Structures are given as C-alpha cells and as structure tokens.
C-alpha cells in the first residue's frame, strides 16, 4: 500500500486528495520505487484541472526521484538499491509506485535526490528547447518569459553559458533580481513595463532571434512583436491560458515568423535521446554551469497548498514535495 495524492475528478487544487493507494506488483519491464523527492510542475496543474484530460481517478505528478525496491521480469539494467529519477510518468505524487524501467535515469554520484527531482523535467525541457528546438549559438539574443521559475532559472544559466545574450521577464523586483543572478543580461518586469517595447530598445530595434514562452495566452501576442524577421516563437506552456492563432497571416505581417509548440514526449521518445539529455543536464550541474534553486518544499500531504502557490505565482525556482 502506498500513500498518494489522488485526483478523483478534474477541478481546482481542492481535488487533490491524500489517500491510500494500492501498490501493484511490478510487471515485465517495471520496477517498484520508494520515492524520496517529487518535483512540482505546471503540467501537474493542467492534468488536475482537466486542461490536459486524464481518466480519473489517477495519481497526480510526473517527476520524482527514489530507490528501486523490487524488479519485475526482464529488467536487467537496474538492481534493487539503485537511485533513479524520472520525468513524464504520471503517478509521481506517491510514497511508493510502479514505474517503467526503460524511462528511469540513474542518478549520478554527487547529485542528491532532491536536486534530481527538482531539475529533471525542467532541465530536460530546457535541454530540448535550447539544443534541439532552436540550437542557441554564441552571439544570438533570446527572450525567456518567467525567467525566475523553475525551468527559467535552469534555462537562462544554460543559455548564457552557450554564449547568448539573455533577456528575461518576471513579475516582481525580487524575481527580477533572481533572474539577473542566474544568467539574464537584461530583465523586464512584465507587470509594469511594455516588454515588447523594452525588447526593441535593448536590441536596438532588431528584435530577438527566439522567444521561449511557457506563460501562454497573456504573453503570446506581444512576444511576436519581440522577434526579428524570420525569428522563432517557441510556445511550450499555458500557465495563463491556451494560445490560439485565429489569423495565421499575422506571422507574415510581423516578419515571416515561425511558431512551434514542442513537447518532451516527442523529443525523448527514444531512451537514448532521454539518456543523452540527462547526461548533459547532470554534467552542467556538476561543473557549475547550472546552479539549482530549490526555494520551497511541501510535505506530500500538502500538495493542494503547493498547487495553489504555483498557480498564484508565489514560487521561484523549483518546488519539491517530500513523501
């Protein structure tokens, strides 16, 4: 038996229920994990609310670290006692769970479990956005919205190390200082400034090469005005609502722009791609390129409070649930 945060019907944070949950025996290609740290991500709120439909009831969460306690048939690359982490496997908000062995990533020595749970989903998101969706090169200029968030703090440090000029937005003086301390050359308070106008000032009217936007509806339209001709708009989240483009000719009018809506599901469909992204991420943490910020922790039983804090923009950096 496991203790878990269960969503019995879609809705607000009040739908997160701390309950007993039957722990199944591991099947072929599966293992049982005793979880030690669980990451909190916006995708968890999308699934809970019904924006991303999931059949109920389900255990919430998509990212965690833990220790292998039992092996199913045919699992040969892991052993009991191994420390592993994962992202993209629904059911993370639990003390114990069954997980697909193929999607588990060994945690290297020198990286603790909380750090692994704090960075894997966010860090792999930053990896595919910076290295695959648009391969950031020295001398380019990027705009990153919500730069003080968990993904933002990882990505802006990494982008700076790649040689980019990094512009970051955030919603308070405290968050702006945090973003500046983690790689942003320029910071913009989107609650008090016209960020498109400021981007044009910073770039001398040229615009940025790429915008990375996990905020969504409230920032999308003005973000198009931040791009240089033939620049790329990367929309990878919907914290403020889902984006729609009713008139696609807006892209031609604003400079023959490109738009993409990527997801890690497709970038990491193959295990070798997942392991390569994780290798580079953990290496960047080990060599100091990425300094990890875990600024809030909540007991697993208080997942409702954690969701409220995240959705109310009361968090910075990564948030961890502790079983």
UniProtKB/TrEMBL annotation:
Top-rank taxon: Bacteria
Q: Enumerate the InterPro entries for this protein.
A: ADH-like_C, ADH-like_N, ER, GroES-like_sf, NAD(P)-bd_dom_sf, QOR-like, Quin_OxRdtase/zeta-crystal_CS
Q: Which UniProt keywords apply?
A: NADP, Oxidoreductase
Question: Could you say which residues form the signal peptide?
Answer: none
Provide the GO MF annotations for this entry: mRNA 3'-UTR AU-rich region binding; NADPH binding; quinone reductase (NADPH) activity; zinc ion binding
Give the matching PANTHER family. QUINONE OXIDOREDUCTASE PIG3-RELATED, QUINONE OXIDOREDUCTASE-RELATED
Classification via NCBIfam families: PRK10754.1
Q: What is this protein called?
A: Quinone oxidoreductase
User: Which organism is this entry from?
Assistant: Devosia epidermidihirudinis
């Amino acid at each position: 038996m496991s203790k878990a945060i269960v969503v019995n019907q879609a809705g607000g944070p009040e739908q997160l229920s701390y309950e007993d949950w039957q722990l199944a025996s591991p099947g072929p290609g599966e293992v049982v994990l005793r979880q030690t740290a669980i990451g909190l991500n916006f995708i968890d709120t999308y699934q809970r609310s019904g924006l991303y439909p999931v059949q109920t009831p389900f255990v919430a969460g998509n990212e965690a670290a833990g220790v292998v306690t039992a092996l199913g048939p045919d699992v040969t690359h892991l052993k009991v006692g191994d420390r592993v982490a994962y992202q993209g496997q629904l059911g993370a908000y639990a003390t114990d769970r069954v997980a697909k062995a193929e999607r588990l990533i060994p945690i290297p020595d020198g990286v603790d479990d909380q750090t692994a749970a704090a960075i894997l989903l966010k860090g792999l998101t930053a990896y595919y956005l910076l290295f695959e969706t648009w391969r950031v090169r020295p001398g380019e200029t990027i705009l990153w919205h919500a730069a003080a968030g968990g993904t933002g703090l990882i990505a802006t440090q990494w982008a700076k190390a790649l040689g980019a000029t990094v512009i970051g937005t955030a919603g308070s003086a405290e968050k702006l200082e945090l973003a500046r301390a983690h790689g942003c050359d320029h910071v913009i308070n989107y609650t008090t400034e016209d960020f498109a106008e400021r981007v044009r000032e910073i770039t001398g009217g040229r615009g940025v090469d790429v915008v990375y936007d996990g905020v969504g509806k409230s920032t999308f339209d003005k973000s198009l005005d931040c791009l240089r001709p033939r620049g790329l708009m990367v929309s990878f989240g919907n914290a403020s609502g889902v984006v729609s483009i009713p008139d696609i000719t807006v892209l031609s009018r604003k400079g023959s722009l490109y738009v993409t809506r990527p997801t890690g599901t497709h970038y990491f469909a193959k295990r070798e791609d997942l392991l390569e992204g994780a290798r580079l991420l953990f290496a960047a943490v080990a060599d100091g390129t990425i300094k990890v910020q875990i600024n809030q922790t909540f007991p697993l039983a208080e997942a409702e409070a954690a969701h409220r804090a995240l959705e109310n923009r009361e968090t910075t950096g990564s948030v961890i649930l502790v079983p």
